Amino acid sequence: MTAQTSLTAQDFKSDVKPIWCPGCGDYAVLSAVTKAMAELGRRREDIAFISGIGCSSRIPAYTNVYGFHGVHGRALAIAAGVKLARPDLTVIAAGGDGDGLSIGGNHFMHACRRNVDMTYIVMDNQVYGMTKGQASPTTAPDWCNSKLTPEGTGISPVEPARLALASGANFIARGFAGNPNEVARLIVEGIHHPGFSFIHVLSPCVTYRPEQREWKTVVHAGEGDPSKAIAEAMQRLSTDDGYTTGVLFAGTRPAFMPARHEKASLAEIEGKFLS
User: Fold this and answer.
1) Computed over its alpha carbons, how large is the radius of gyration of the chain?
2) 82-98: pLDDT as tens digits
């Protein structure tokens, strides 16, 4: 692993101007991501940043590292392939609550279970902002400000941290876009922690969920050390209000990395099947 500590957060920003709405929390997440990349001390070409589809999934284009803008819900499948093929790279995936927990929900659960050594950042605004304000998997059942669900969804929302823990994620943290320095710290801790790390970021969408401006008054730091036992973490999360920030779980499972084999010619591969 080659280190280069002279790079700053600005060095990890591309020349592409973000096109998020004014006041979007994703601007702060972008700032946190570039700060984290600078703190890691890695070269830009040693980092791969993968995303799916949605407002937040535009984020790799705004960074100056290797990036891949994948199809809807498939960021984790791509990221896992990158990490398994190139274990020397720092692999980060990013997306939103819709991309990661709806169409990508199955990939999310199995990425947690497989425990490949990569980090997944989900920017959760509890709404589909890119497609004009529909309810998402994390939307409360009584939110009725969408034309598609004027009486609310009536469906219990996904609890991202609990789902990640139940599915086997080895590191779970929650941050608030209003505190990008803490988000940057959580990203760095997640990258350094072996296995699959899940960073849940509360990132307000002030265009379709203006009431989320009040999140700054309800987020609060967690008390005590992070749980290392699944049972203890599950007990804490069972009473969590969804606004606790910090590291929520730091597991001890070893990261998954299958044995790597030397390259073989096509004739050698065919011979194994024909013998």
Assistant:
1) 19
2) 999 999 999 999 999 99
216, containing H or E segment: helix 215-218
Residue type at 221 in one-letter notation: A
DSSP per position, 142-169: T---SSS-TT---SPPP-HHHHHHHHT-
CA 119, 123, 128 angle in degrees (round to 5)? Answer: 135
CA nearest to 40, candidates 101, 89, 97, 105: 89
Going by C-alpha positions, the residue among 97, 106, 47 that lies closest to residue 74 is: 106
Q: Is the pLDDT of residue 1 over 50?
A: no
b/e for 89-112, b at 16 or more Cβ within 10 A? bbbbbbbbbbbbbbbbbebbbebb
Output the pLDDT for position 144: 87
Pairing relationship of beta strands 171-176 and 244-250 according to DSSP bridges: antiparallel
- CA 144 distance to own-chain centroid: 27
What is residue 125's DSSP assignment? -
- Band (155; pLDDT cuts 50, 70, 90): very high
Query: Residues 22-36: what's their mean pLDDT?
Result: 97
Query: Taking Cα atoms as reference points, which of 2, 29, 203 lies closest to residue 89?
Result: 2
The pTM is what? 0.92
Q: Where are the beta strands (DSSP E) in 177-228?
A: 197-202, 220-221
What domains can you pick out in the chain, each with its CATH number? 16-274 (3.40.50.970)
Residue type, 130: M
- pLDDT band, very low/low/confident/very high, at 75 (cuts 50, 70, 90): very high
Distance between CA atoms of 45 and 29, rounded to whole angstroms?
Answer: 21
> Which residue blocks in 21-177 are alpha helix, DSSP H?
26-40, 75-85, 97-98, 105-114, 160-167
Q: Which residue has the tokens 């600078």?
A: 38
